[in-house]
């Protein structure tokens, strides 16, 4: 069974044989580990001809190497490129690795938490000009579906939707406002991506990523038809055991080894977080993919990621002994320090 096949089984709620599938949304340590920076759009801007093709081929080979080294089921690295460049990179990945790994796209379009410069104006628009806000939301949805469709036609099977909705203390919008300004548009994006997959002759899986405390809007997220939920943020006090209880078999869970522990925790803290995620995510019941609670970002010591993956190797298969009796669920930020 290929890593891609294992991910698809999990995304469809099943339990693949052997080790639980694994992915990371982003891996920012390619220079430290492999001596090569992942290609970004600005690196290739204005480059044409054979040099451009060679750069894209080298980038494709890098991300296949990352996937092979860390046993990823899904290749996510090319998302730093423009859509046309991602499409070409997908072709080169298939030349190198065939169907071993699932290809992905990153596209959303729904309203995320606005940045500091735009926050006041965004809030004013929602309250004072709701019709304008909804018209804008519809345009954003249409644009995101168009971009994702191009990538799906080029082979993407999994679409990560990465608009962040929540702080550690809860959603940016109240649940009623979220129901008005986000949920129906997220539902439209999911439906559009599923339809694009059908037109391409295969199923496309929609993964909703958002950090923060999602619990007040969890049922709304599930109502949109998403296939999976990431990152199930322990730093916001989100307990993957409770999420699994509420989600049941309605969606695959992806997560949620605590990023703060991966950045500066002890091996024991990383081990505890990884064991808790494995035990309660669904290794035994199915519908679960192992990952960090966000990504492997710049500043994470690679040995800490290795520790996380060793826990998966030792305990990440159905029926494994996972000693989690003394491991407490996460507590919301503000109620404790993340690390001592």
Q: In a nutshell, what does this entry contain?
A:
The protein is of the alpha/beta class and 340 residues long.
Number of alpha- plus pi-helical segments: 14
What's the CATH C level? Alpha Beta
Main beta sheet: strand number and arrangement? 7 strands, parallel
CATH architecture: Alpha-Beta Barrel
Mean pLDDT: 96
Low-confidence stretches: 336-340
Order of helices and strands: HHHHEHEHHEEEHHEHEHEHHEH
What proportion of the residues is helical, as a percent range? Answer: 40-55%
Task: Write down the overall geometry.
Answer: globular
Count of the separate structural domains: 1
Strand order of the largest sheet: 1-2-3-6-7-8-9
What's the N-to-C terminus distance? 41 Å
Structural class: alpha/beta
